[in-house]
Amino acid sequence: MLLEWWSGTECTLFSDEATVNTFGKEHVIIILNHNFEIDFLCGWTMTERFGVLGSSKVLAKKELLYVPLIGWTWYFLEIVFCKRKWEEDRDTVIEGLKRLADYPEYMWFLLYCEGTRFTETKHRISMEVAESKGLPKLKYHLLPRTKGFTTAVQCLRGTVSAVYDVTLNFRGNKNPSLLGILYGKKYEADMCVRRFPLEDIPQDEKEAANWLHKLYQEKDALQEMYNQEGTFPGQQFKPPRRPWTLLNFLFWATVLLSPLFTFGFGVFASGSPLLILAFLGFVGAGNKSREDAKPCDM
């Protein structure tokens, strides 16, 4: 809601009509580059516009399970939680993925295969690892971590129909932030979406990992093209905003925020420094939880 109604940020898809016609009509795994602070918001916006926001799944940090409201909500939505240590996560992740194998609604399962957001320092270290393993270096991405991807493909084979590769960038070489969105700043997001049938992905774990490395080399080439030409290949699509999201937000904001504002006014009106500090600490903790509520991967 903040992205599309408050800031007015627009998301344009670059794909083909056959691929777009499958959106919201099949179970898929989504691979998204992790270069921006608000890339997950762009992803959630697209899932909402194609009617699958409620059935979208991610790998989330286990710490979020214990955050009031966020953790409880995600637990009942069958989000897969992880510690980002494969030796400890393996059984838990596999169990969570198997629960999704018979999910009754069309599901989009998001993976950030890079594992963390791109920075120059992380990129330098990642490319040192690539060189040590004899893998081609990437210019715009970190070396993908293959365990989460190969495990998801193995566990969801027979349920998932395809992998959507999504490469995201912003016009004008912008690097948007959550703070900018809260201030109502408008950005223009471009998302290149390619569909790969799951049967085209090797069943062998090592071959599937090699497939993923090749995919990221192609993503790197797409980013290079975007930086040079200012656009992605393919036909442009602009899914319209749905007024329901605004109405839904306004309703729940009225129901939930009115008591909070009333309580906050009472706290400040009391003049008690202890109460005021406790209230500000509660608000700050809630804001920190919001910033941390991002997917993770192995």
UniProtKB/TrEMBL annotation:
Entry keyword set: Acyltransferase, Lipid biosynthesis, Lipid metabolism, Membrane, Phospholipid biosynthesis, Phospholipid metabolism, Transferase, Transmembrane, Transmembrane helix
InterPro entries named in the record: Acyltransf_C, Plipid/glycerol_acylTrfase
Pfam families: Acyltransf_C, Acyltransferase
SUPFAM superfamilies registered for this protein in UniProt: Glycerol-3-phosphate (1)-acyltransferase (SSF69593)
GO process annotations (BP): phospholipid biosynthetic process
Domain Phospholipid/glycerol acyltransferase: 28-150
Gene Ontology MF term list: 1-acylglycerol-3-phosphate O-acyltransferase activity
Segments passing through the bilayer: 267-285
SMART domains assigned: PlsC
Gene Ontology, cellular component aspect: endoplasmic reticulum
Top-level taxon in the UniProt lineage: Eukaryota
Entry similarity comment: Belongs to the 1-acyl-sn-glycerol-3-phosphate acyltransferase family.
Record protein name field: Phospholipid/glycerol acyltransferase domain-containing protein
